[in-house]
TrEMBL record:
This is Assimilatory nitrate reductase catalytic subunit. It comes from Acinetobacter kyonggiensis. GO terms for cellular component: membrane; oxidoreductase complex. Keywords: 4Fe-4S, Iron, Iron-sulfur, Metal-binding, Molybdenum, Nitrate assimilation, Oxidoreductase. Belongs to the prokaryotic molybdopterin-containing oxidoreductase family. NasA/NapA/NarB subfamily. Residues 17-76 form the 4Fe-4S Mo/W bis-MGD-type domain.
Length: 926
């Protein structure tokens, strides 16, 4: 295994050890995880490693997965039902909470109709939870007003798949990336967002001649090992792939036999994309040079096995569906689908985005890949569920859903396992909607999120490690997520809470005893009026999504279920039998043919203008996940990119008066936020980039969702997260500083911190760090310090120096020899090394030398100054890596790993190490 070794407990304290194979709750790779719980005299100790038997990762985990054990504590949990909004919240019993929900729902139905109720759920739900809530809403409440945060990441791919193939199908598997000759990564920083799959691609590249292309407006870590980077202008993917379609057609690279036998609509697609027939036109639209376009087009044309992976950069767009179909068009034209190492591949962002699609989790879908507005399918599902009311028309999609809440069309909403006040575009609109909504229910594991404060009923859900069920990853692989921890206090499974409300409303059909019962019903519905491929002609409702072989699993077989790809037509189906679909050219449309989609390249909605001349792109960073409610608990995951930031090109920084490391305001016509400037050549002029993760619990003003363009794709309803017109300004403050307080003392200082004009909170191993800024004059700082550091009784020892002329103030608080707090206010260049200060909180006692160094704000020796952390696993900083590269003339990342261990565990930092090696080589040449 390639995981950090765990310190073994002394055998005398060890009482019991239990190991459980489960699945990671983060990205769509769906890695297998082995969790070990040691019951000792000192309490429980949980360690996490990769499952070497799981075919998605074979023992590998990224840095987030490796640190899962840091995120399962109960400190931030909701542990009992709560009633009333935040200011007046009181504990309640489950019976009281369930009755309140059922009574309000019935009142809404009676007074306003069934469509006055809505649900907003999540790809964090297990398939069994997803199935029950979908059954309840669409089959019993009789409304389709249930949507999911998966709308924000992959609904454009879903719509594109259905248009092209007739069904929402990812036809290939991860192993295809190991057998292909060319990988095209489109709109995906795979190295950071799907690290384990990226490492599989990189390993294949080491072993043979694999050509890697990255299509991305930014030069990301994924580009470090690419053979070709295409720095496309935001929103111009259709032009790029329409140009490829034209090139392939005009230069004799079409698979005419495949096209004639298995497709329709090519002539229209070619006619619609005629404006991209000249490569010079494509270059003008995309901002990519003719030379690079020629290289890409020729390589795609002359390589028989090509895998095109696309993700959020394609999907999260007002043209997301068309972008995805422009990719599928090129694969259909060349017959590069259904073959080993050849396919378009949609990579999902969440662990169970595909499981949600299987059960109809989106507002425009029915369960089991059946069509919501198809009367035959409606009847099929209603008969199977024996339901009193079946939804017959699509409900509100995510963005429209919260507009309907704000306008009063929706009177009651139940939000499950997601944080829309942070994650949705125009996020303050979501806040307004929830503020005035008559009745809000939230099911979550976290007591304090930006969304839970609006809950009239807050329900304690089970978290990862506590709940039982299945998830489906991006390669159609169903895996068990198993419990290895006891259910804490009053927390319950989401399916259980839904079932209780359903029963209270008088509905039958929810007598599930466990997740096994639910899975069997889900599997049986998938096989209802369905068949395998050989019997397709006898089945008018044929779907590839079919779990017929799993419909009679015993409880033991379900508990022991190994990862399996669907379709599962028979219980004896050999492993790998469905690793790639469409090999026979049988697609899911009624005529079994795939469809070319005619697409016109257009510019993004809401173009830049004089008032908002820059384009904001948003995305994820390596070590954080969604809105940080889970990963934000881990000190190890807060070291790589600790603060909310905005990446900007040096010339734009100069133009707008922004300095590297200083604060800036990002503003659109929807909202604004304040971030730390990161000046970088990795982004093009005219563009800025900001991560999505920070929320109001960890930063004063960093919810980038407030700023984001709320326009959506007309077909999928997926929002435009990649193209928001903005302006930036320097953010004025009189002073900036860094404040550390030992864990356990945070609440004493929290209100004082939050009174400053800007702050952000970072968890370290023993202390909480706050970066702060304020507009009070430096001469007022002494008074402000007393507010910020309220350690005034005689048990605390104070050290303080101040130089008002130099605008420097250092304060240190100790108690019984332990470091309790430290505050440094100084010009940015004179603020202390953050990791060094954090390390002193780990010491049992401070020596006189340490005290002097703390007061001075710098270590007595700078030899151990690591600089910004690169390798979170082994705590190796940028400065040490650069020094090692230069001193040992290193030319390969493996040499860095051999010297420093960096990159030797999860591999997430390897692209960054490659970038440092290139930078050192460039510097040496110059």
């Amino acid at each position: 295994m390639n995981n950090i070794p765990v310190v073994e407990l002394e055998s005398s304290t060890e009482l019991l050890t239990k190991t459980t194979n489960t699945t990671c709750p983060y990205c769509g790779v769906g890695c297998g995880v082995t969790a070990t719980v040691q019951e000792t005299a000192l309490g429980q100790k949980v360690t996490v490693e990769g499952d070497i038997t799981h075919p998605s990762n074979y023992g590998k985990l990224c840095i987030k997965g490796s640190n899962l054990a840091d995120t399962i504590g109960l400190e931030s949990r909701v542990l009992e039902p709560m009633m009333g909004r935040k200011a007046n919240r009181q504990a309640a019993t489950w019976d009281t909470a369930i009755s309140s929900i059922a009574n309000k729902f019935q009142q809404c139905i009676d007074q306003y109709g069934r469509d006055s109720i809505a649900f907003y759920v999540s790809g964090q739900l297990l398939t069994e939870d997803y199935y029950v809530v979908n059954k309840f809403v669409k089959g019993y409440l009789g409304t389709a007003n249930i949507d999911t945060n998966s709308r924000l990441c992959m609904s454009s791919a879903v719509a594109a798949h259905k248009r092209a193939f007739g069904e929402d199908i990812v036809s290939a598997s991860y192993e295809d990336f190991e057998h292909t000759d060319m990988v095209v990564l489109v709109g995906s920083n795979t190295a950071w967002c799907h690290p384990v799959l990226y490492q599989r691609i990189m390993k294949a590249k080491e072993q043979r001649d694999l050509f890697v292309v990255v299509v991305d407006p930014r030069f990301t870590s994924t580009c470090e090992a690419a053979d070709l980077h295409l720095p496309i202008l935001p929103g111009q993917d259709v032009a790029l792939f329409n140009g490829l379609l034209q090139y392939l057609s005009k230069n004799g690279h079409a698979d005419q036999a495949f096209i004639a036998a298995h497709t329709q609509g090519l002539a229209q697609a070619l006619a619609q994309s005629e404006s991209e027939s000249l490569i010079e036109n494509v270059a003008t639209r995309t901002g990519i040079s003719v030379e690079k376009l020629q290289t890409f087009y020729e390589k795609f044309a002359n390589t028989s096995k090509v895998m095109t992976l696309f993700s959020m950069g394609v999907n999260q767009s007002s043209q997301g569906v068309n972008k995805a179909n422009s990719i599928t068009n090129c694969h259909l034209l060349t017959g590069k689908i259904g073959k080993l190492g050849a396919a378009p591949f949609s990579m999902t962002g969440q662990p169970n985005a595909m499981g949600g699609r299987e059960v109809g989790g989106l507002a425009n879908m029915l369960a089991a890949h059946l069509e919501l507005e198809n009367e035959t399918h409606q009847q099929l599902v209603q008969n199977f569920w024996h339901s009193p009311h079946i939804a017959k028309q699509a409900g509100f999609k995510a963005v429209d859903l919260f507009h309907a809440v704000e306008s009063g069309k929706i009177k009651a909403i139940w939000i499950m396992a997601t944080n829309p006040v942070v994650s949705l575009p125009d996020a303050d609109q979501v806040k307004r909607a929830l503020e005035q909504c008559e009745f809000v229910v939230v099911s979550d594991i976290c007591q304090e999120t930006d969304t839970t404060q609006y809950a009239d009923v807050l329900l304690p859900a089970l978290g990862w490690g506590e709940k039982e069920g299945t998830v489906t990853n991006s390669e159609r692989r169903i895996s068990r997520q198993r419990a290895f921890l006891a259910e804490p206090s009053e927390a319950k499974a989401d399916w259980w809470a839904i079932s209780q409300v359903a029963k209270k409303l008088g509905f039958d059909g929810f007598d599930f005893k466990n997740s096994h019962d639910i899975f069997l019903e889900h599997a049986r519905l998938s096989a209802q009026q369905n068949s395998d491929l050989e019997q397709r002609s006898e089945t008018p409702n044929f779907r590839y999504f079919n779990l017929n072989g799993l419909t009679d699993l015993t409880a033991t077989e379900y508990d022991e279920l190994k990862p399996v790809q669907w379709p599962v037509w028979t219980k004896q189906q050999p492993e790998g039998a469905v690793a790639r679909l469409y090999a026979t050219g049988q697609f899911s449309h009624a005529d079994a043919k795939a469809k070319f989609i005619a697409i016109t390249a257009i510019n993004p909605v809401n173009s830049v203008c004089k008032e908002f001349p820059l384009v904001l792109n948003t995305g994820r960073i390596r070590d954080q996940w969604h809105t940080m409610s889970r990963t934000g608990l881990s000190a190890n995951l807060s070291t790589h990119r600790a603060e909310p930031y905005c990446e900007i090109h040096p010339q734009d920084a100069l133009k707008y008066g922004v300095k590297d490391g200083e604060l800036l305001e990002v503003k659109s016509k929807w909202g604004n936020c304040v971030l730390r400037a990161t000046v970088s050549d990795d982004i093009r002029r005219g563009q800025v980039f900001a991560p999505i993760h920070w929320n109001d619990q960890v930063a004063s003003d960093a919810r980038i969702g407030k700023v984001v363009n709320p326009v959506v794709d007309a077909i999928s309803g997926e929002p435009e997260f990649k193209h928001t017109p903005v302006i930036i300004h320097p953010f004025y403050s009189q002073w900036q500083g860094v404040f550390y307080v030992r864990q356990g003392f945070e609440k004493i200082v929290q209100s004082s911190i939050e009174s400053t004009v800007w702050w952000t909170k970072i968890i370290t191993a023993k202390a909480t760090r706050y970066e702060v800024a304020d507009r009070k004059k430096f001469t007022q700082t002494t008074e402000h310090l007393k507010e910020l550091l309220p350690f005034q009784d005689e048990s605390f020892e104070w050290l303080n120096i101040e130089d008002q002329t130099a605008h420097i103030s250092h304060s240190v608080v100790l108690k019984d020899g332990h470091l309790i707090a430290s505050l440094y206010i100084a010009p940015k260049a004179l603020l202390p090394d953050r990791d060094w200060v954090a390390s002193l909180f780990k010491r049992e006692r401070l020596s006189a030398m340490h005290r002097k160094a703390l007061l001075a704000g710098q270590p007595m020796s700078m030899a151990n100054n690591e600089g910004p952390l690169v390798c979170s696993c082994f705590k190796v900083g940028k400065n040490r890596i650069i020094e090692t590269i230069k001193s040992k003339n290193i030319t390969d990342e493996k040499q860095v790993t051999a010297c420093l261990k960096a990159g030797g565990n999860c591999g997430s930092c390897l692209p960054e190490i490659r970038g440092l090696i290139k930078a050192c080589q460039t510097e040496a040449v110059e």
